[in-house]
């Protein structure tokens, strides 16, 4: 016991020394293969039957510690891995992979190993996917170099894998995005900011604008589009030509003295239709003179004459192959001429032929006595057909710039040149087999082109039918009631596939292909729908995907190809043309 009053004395105690680390197990301590005991054990193990070997291994594993079991597991796992595709012949591996329909699965599989990547680079797999997803390829394609081809051979054509990727991304861009190339804004009235906000959407029942060009509004009345050009005809007599690849306004075609009401676009190149001869009574008509070599080359006058001349009576002979239906985009295939051409008509009664590349007016062909309301150009033939308020249909040779024939018989204005009749029909669609017509009586009639009999009377709209399009399996109609109705053309039932309340007011634009349907309305909306095909050949229903553009006051015209979409609308009192691109950058 410490006496009272004395302080406590603390003596520091040194920590005990840390023992040296124990020596680890070295490879020298492991039994070597030269050890007689280890060698004897391995020799005895190899002589055992499979059943005894399993029992022996089981007894050893039962005596192992967890760390030893982890060592066994990490050693055995790599030995059990097998690349089943590498063990098989490539042909059998491709057959197994052909059961995979999802491109994302194949893309992930190509990241497994270099061998799998090489295996999945074969064009046969991607050609099958192109066919399965409906990604058509050019007929002159041949598969690119196979990864199993001898070294030194280079591919001469694009690969199906690259083509599938490009088309797949294009479809995805349609559904989820796309890039707005350009937005072009033009005042409705020249010299003003256009305070007129009640300008009606032009249609086939509208009267042409006044003859005074200075007061004509810049309303889009017609549109044509292909993979290279977008052509927009305006009520102020101008024609704007945009690049479909960049969206830039390439040129403005000036020459018409009144509003343009019909335009058509002829693609450059193409092949002449062997069965489509130029219908003319004068087989020895002279070549046009006075053109520069550039213009002669652009319109194909310097190319060899691929057409055999004959009388018009043989053009519609039953021996001639059935022609390709006209495209709703307003474009047609060329007959081999190098440059793209634009054909236009309007209130000045003249048909004009333009070189899209230079903007030069090649021909001005008079003949009609009133406004030209509609215009079509045949595929692979330099033949244009126009309809006018003078009640005539005229046939033109746009390669030589002359009128070939006048077809008379209509009692009133000709508003569509896909059908011949003696009554006013608001809109018509023709696919080479059937004719569909819609009118002010809210009904749609389907006619047989061979016999002229009415195959079906279709009802469903509550106002006039103003839009029609035919496909081999489907008829789509749009009305002033804002509805879009699709009918099945498989069989003879003409049953309704779907009724869509697409817009709150009149449907002003309707176009579809085998994958998408685009509609525009007077409510200022442009909507995208996607068809859901079951793969049984039957036309399927479509589902709403999204709005293709911001809302506007009204939509005037919409046209699209698989890669580009052009929208002409009214926004903030101005005419706005938007050009969207969905093809990925190459």
From TrEMBL:
Domain (F-box) ranges: 82-129
InterPro entries: F-box-like_dom_sf, F-box_dom, WD40/YVTN_repeat-like_dom_sf, WD40_PAC1, WD40_repeat_CS, WD40_repeat_dom_sf, WD40_rpt
Keyword set, alphabetical order: Repeat, WD repeat
Spans traversing the lipid bilayer: none
Region (Disordered): 1-28, 188-219, 315-337
Placement of WD repeats on the sequence: 341-364, 365-406, 407-457, 500-533
Keyword Repeat among UniProt keywords: yes
Pfam short name (any one): F-box-like
Keyword Zinc-finger: no
Protein name: F-box domain-containing protein
Organism field: Somion occarium
């Amino acid at each position: 016991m410490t006496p009272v009053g004395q302080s406590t004395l603390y003596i520091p105690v040194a920590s005990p020394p840390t023992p040296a680390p124990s020596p680890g197990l070295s490879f020298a301590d492991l039994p070597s293969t030269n050890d007689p005991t280890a060698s004897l054990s391995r020799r005895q193990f190899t002589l055992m039957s499979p059943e005894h070997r399993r029992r022996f291994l089981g007894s050893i594993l039962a005596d192992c510690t967890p760390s030893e079991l982890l060592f066994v597991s990490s050693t055995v796992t790599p030995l059990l891995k097998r690349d089943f595709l590498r063990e098989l012949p490539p042909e059998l591996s491709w057959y197994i992979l052909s059961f995979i329909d999802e491109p994302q699965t194949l893309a992930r599989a190509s990241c497994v190993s270099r061998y799998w990547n090489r295996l999945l680079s074969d064009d046969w797999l991607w050609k099958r996917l192109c066919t399965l997803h409906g990604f058509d390829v050019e007929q002159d394609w041949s598969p690119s170099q196979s990864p199993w081809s001898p070294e030194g051979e280079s591919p001469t054509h694009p690969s199906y894998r690259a083509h599938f990727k490009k088309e797949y991304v294009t479809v995805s861009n349609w559904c989820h995005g796309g890039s707005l190339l350009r937005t072009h804004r033009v005042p409705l009235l020249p010299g003003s900011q256009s305070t007129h906000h009640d300008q009606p959407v032009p249609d086939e029942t509208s009267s042409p604008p006044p003859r005074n060009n200075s007061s004509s509004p810049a309303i889009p009345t017609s549109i044509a589009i292909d993979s290279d050009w977008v052509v927009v005809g305006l009520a102020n007599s101008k024609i704007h030509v945009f690049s479909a690849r960049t969206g830039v306004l390439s040129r403005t075609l000036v020459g018409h003295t009144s509003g343009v009401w019909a335009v058509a676009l002829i693609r450059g190149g193409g092949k002449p239709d062997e069965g489509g001869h130029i219908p003319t009574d004068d087989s020895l008509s002279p070549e046009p003179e006075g053109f520069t070599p550039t213009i002669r080359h652009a319109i194909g006058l310097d190319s060899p004459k691929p057409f055999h001349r004959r009388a018009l009576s043989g053009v519609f002979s039953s021996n001639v192959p059935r022609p390709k239906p006209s495209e709703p985009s307003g474009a047609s295939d060329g007959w081999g001429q190098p440059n793209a051409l634009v054909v236009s008509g309007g209130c000045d009664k003249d048909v004009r032929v333009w070189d899209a590349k230079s903007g030069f007016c090649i021909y001005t062909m008079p003949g009609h006595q009133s406004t030209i309301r509609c215009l079509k150009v045949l595929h692979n033939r330099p033949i244009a057909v126009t309809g006018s308020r003078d009640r005539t249909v005229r046939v033109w040779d746009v390669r030589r710039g002359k009128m070939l024939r006048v077809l008379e018989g209509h009692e009133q204005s000709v508003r569509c040149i896909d059908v011949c009749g003696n009554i006013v029909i608001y809109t018509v669609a023709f696919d080479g087999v059937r004719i569909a017509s819609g009118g002010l009586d809210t009904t749609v009639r389907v006619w047989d082109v061979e016999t002229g009999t009415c195959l079906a009377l279709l009802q469903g709209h509550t106002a006039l039918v103003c839009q029609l399009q035919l496909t081999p399996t489907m008829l789509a109609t749009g009305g002033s009631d804002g509805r879009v109705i699709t009918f099945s053309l498989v069989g003879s039932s003409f049953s309704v596939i779907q009724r869509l309340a697409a817009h709150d007011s009149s449907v002003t634009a309707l176009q579809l292909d085998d994958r998408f349907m685009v509609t525009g309305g007077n409510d200022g909306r442009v909507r995208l729908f996607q068809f859901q095909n079951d793969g049984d050949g039957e036309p399927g229903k479509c589902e709403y995907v999204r709005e293709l553009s911001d809302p506007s006051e009204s939509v005037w015209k919409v046209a699209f190809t698989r890669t580009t979409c052009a929208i002409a609308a009214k926004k903030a009192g101005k005419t706005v043309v938007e050009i969207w691109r969905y093809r990925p950058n190459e």
